[in-house]
User: Fold these one by one.
Assistant:
Number 1:
Amino acid sequence: MNKRTFIWFGVLVLVLAVVIPFAAFRARGDGENGEDKVPASLKSGQSIFVTNCGTCHTLYSAGTDGNYAPNLDELLAPNGAPEGPTAEETFKQTEGRVLNAIKQGVDSSTTPGRMPGGILNEEQAEEVAEFVARTAGEG
Ligand code: HEC
């Protein structure tokens, strides 16, 4: 084959062998997506959140983008997920706040909508509260 054909053949091989698998890998998610970073112990809380909370609330770690209610990353962890020695205390406070919102519902006069209370049972509420408190602000 002449030189030109040879070069084109080389380019073709490069596309097939490198670019396509790379593109497929990117599309499948390579850890850039917050949903995939959640540890196994929080997965159940995550899925309860997606089903019951995600239509209203945006939360990066759940991959939801509901815009009826406050963005929970911004509301609960405006400076990012807690780290360092006070992290556990912050986590407990946030967990309590989320649990309370789920049980009682929220209807403050400062924002338009209203959050319905009691949409989960106790166990589900605790799992979701733990998931949200551990991951809010990760985005
Ligand atoms: C029907 C829509 C809707 C659903 C479903 C919903 N929320 Fe809400 N949520 C709201 C609205 C609206 C507010 C703000 C209410 C206000 O400020 O008056 C809110 C507020 C909150 C707050 C803030 C409370 C605070 O202390 O400021 C948290 C936390 C929360 N929701 C968590 C959840 C979780 C967890 C779920 C799933 C179990 C959930 N929400 C499901 C609409 C919803």
Note: Strands lie at 58-59, 64-65.
Number 2:
Amino acid sequence: MTVPFVELRDEHRALRDDLRRAWDEALDSGAFVGGARVEGFEKAFAEFCEVRCAVGVGNGSDALVLALRALGIGKGHEVITAANSFVATAEAIVHAGATPVFVDIDSKTYNIDVHRIENCITARTRAIIPVHLYGQPADMHPILEIARLHSLSVIEDAAQAHGARYHGRRVGSIGDVACFSFYPAKNLGACGDGGAVVTNDPKVADTVRMLRDHGSPRKYEHGVVGYNSRLDSLQAAVLHIKLQYLERRNQMRRRHAQTYTELLSHITGIVTPFVPDGINSVYHLYVIRIEKGSRNDLQKYLKDYGVQTGIHYPTPIHRTAAFASFNSSGCPVAEKYAERILSLPMYPEMKRNQMQYIADLLTDYCDG
Ligand SMILES: Cc1ncc(COP(=O)(O)O)c(C=O)c1O
């Protein structure tokens, strides 16, 4: 048997007629950048996230840069974020002109360790970017409390967590502003690049709208130096269709995660995901931790038997060459886990026999 890490074709096969119709309408309309399709999707996505405003942008990385700039964060400022994330989180801080400060991850949830944040706050700190890693919300209550005490902004990096809930609240509606990616493999993915900034603050939304379009509130008026980072109408049409199925597809991911956990939790040396009370993960990834033996050898063994896996991420950001010169408060957990984590195949169309096959392989390898 072969099990791919992700499979995008099944979703598109099922939606092909709807997608083709929407694209035909968009092609016939001649409106490719901005326009009714983008506005329609923004409205629907804001409702989904339970916020007042959503602004479509070019991708999730730009969403973070534009959110930082809209909050006035830039040169001379520090922004605290997690050592284990996709590099885009830290890149955005640098592109906005600020300095990233990396905080270690919690040893159970793999999200930012909230107990280590306050030690990293200086007179220059302006914001915290918690990342809802693997689809599981970061521990937002203590983060909001620290932010309130020190007058910091909170920007949620929700690129992996469309639809997740934290104590009943949708991710994206908890911080001052939140950023999403619609990269094709995300829980809500376009047929190309896309992203969104969501917020309850209409002023922040207006600033992001201006920044995404060359700093221009009206044609050829340029208040600030902006960007070209607009969501195009073909992607907006696709996203609007797929949004209708997102809850159902997230529920399928949750069911698969539950099956995986049932099948794997008895295996010696394998730690399945820990989900604290009040957290509703959307399992963008299902990540296990290997407590004994070599993760790389295990990954190769699975590959030899046709199972594709991933590592998210093999190098904590502060250990990459690009970010080695930035300050980290020492991130021993992120460093240790980078060698122990393994992401198993996860997508809504997965079948139980595929998970059983993976569990049998892991059982043979670890307990055989
Ligand atoms: C946590 C996180 N932040 C930001 C991004 C950047 O999103 P994009 O690829 O759309 O620029 C990603 C995308 O992989 C991500 O996983």
Note: The mean pLDDT is 96.
